[in-house]
Amino acid sequence: MSQIRILPPILRNKIAAGEVIERPASVVKELVENSIDAGSKDIRIEVLYGGKRLIKVSDNGKGMDREDALLCFERYATSKLHNEEDLFRLSTMGFRGEALPSITSVAKVRLVTAPESTHRGVSIEITGGEIKSVKDSPSVGTTVEVRDLFFNTPARRKFLKADNTESFHVIDRVTEQALAHHEIGFSLVSDNREIMRIPVASSRRERIVQIYGEEFVCRLVDINRETTGITMNCFVANESNLRSSKTYQFIFINKRPVRDSSLTHAIYNAYEGILPQKKHPVFFLFLTIEPGVVDVNVHPAKREVKFENKEPIYNFVLSGIKDNLPRPLQPKPYDFPSTSVISEAFELGYRTSVSFMPIGDAFIAVSGPAGLTLVDQHAAHERVLYERFLGGVDMNPYLLLFPRQLQLSPKEYHVLLANGPILKDFGIELDDFGHNSIVVRSLPEVLRDADIRGILADIASCLTEGVPPDRELRETLAAKIACHRSVRGKTILKQEEVDQLLSDLQKCRHPDSCPHGRPTRIFLSLEDLKKMFKRT
Ligand code: ADP
Ligand code: MG
Predict the structure, then answer these.
(1) Best residue for ligand 1 mutational test, from 34, 57, 60, 86 (most atoms within 8 Å of Cβ)
(2) Interatomic CA distance for residues 456 and 422, integer angstroms
(3) pLDDT (tens digit, 9 = 90+) per residue, 446-461?
């Protein structure tokens, strides 16, 4: 029996209109959402040339009968919404009846579908919105093939990016949907290569492990909270899983991936006092909110939502995370040496074993007859490492006795393997281990105890997001790795470490600033001090 109806005009006007199909990834998102709404347990996605040539989504959901299959291409034809009240109690991903007609107006589409437990399927071909053929076709579930996206709108086709970039967008969308719906299995094949194969998972945690690996998930804190009308389940980074990009930040509201600056703000706020400058937390926030108090009908691609009352949700998320984040240990108080800390002959040319005094846990003061030098230990170390990585010399790559196997996200895996030669320049050698895993064969000596997974993740996001126009890729990568490896603020250094750091800094070509342009050291000469004390 037919289930699809055309929305009456009064309801059409209440729907947030706008362009839903921007690029191949938007087609993937719409088709996958339809498969989810159809109750599928297994969804397969295939793309060719980043989806420009072909996007194919097959599912094992409830399918459509002939009548619905013909109706679904009409504007405002939907089985998910019947009256205005439905808009406020939506439990489906789609509801506007706009996706299929929008897709068919700009591509060549074939739909093969059969209603559940019959094999009386139908195959329909429709190009540029015009039905070309309707045939019987025994099948199970639904398959939609979308060929030659924007074939009839060259201006829009021109805005598509390189195949690789478009396929990264596809991976992103599939990853989001897979995170949101762990009870569904997904697979993604791009240019005949399997990029993802994730079977049905029994929990969100298991799903995150399937995509990012156990090691990554071990460094997340699992937080569950509930209050009237809202349930929160989130996985957030502990102190050892902070990143220099915002790549791993996901918010899902009622299983919908959304962007929400206020909830993001709440999470950053929860990290106050833990998050070093320029670092970002990893988070997967899943909120289940009564449909009546959250409006999903505000954005054409449903990327944003509106809350009836934002404040309680903000506070709920903030306190839920803040109360459960392990706070870092306070640094140990410093033992002052009994001898005077004033060095006899300290002149910017650092000598071995300088007397120094830690100031708080981020700075060191070194004094000498010519004045006082204040050093930002993190910035200084960053400068030293940065020049070393840039120079490529003296990286001392060493072969790992027990090569480390790491599971990466599908996107990281592809971009890192594709950029092997650049990584090799930095002394990092990787091998393909299949199924989104790599093996790290060699590492530069300075990265011996580093968080290599974190470093690779940062390099991958740098490679996919591109570099700022005034920088070279090499420099950007060197700065990323240096920042990772350098002494964090909040560590009190030992004598040998200070000696090493100061002498290394002295040898740098640009010792006075870190790769981000902040000063590494400030010198106050005797003259300056005299002026400050109004002695002159
Ligand atoms: P919406 O999802 O907003 O209803 P669409 O244009 O995406 O609008 O789809 C129109 C209708 O086609 C849906 O309401 C649904 O009834 C049907 N449909 C689309 N895709 C599928 C699918 N994979 N399986 C079963 N039915 C589908
Ligand atoms: Mg839809």
Answers:
(1) 34
(2) 12
(3) 787 778 888 898 889 8
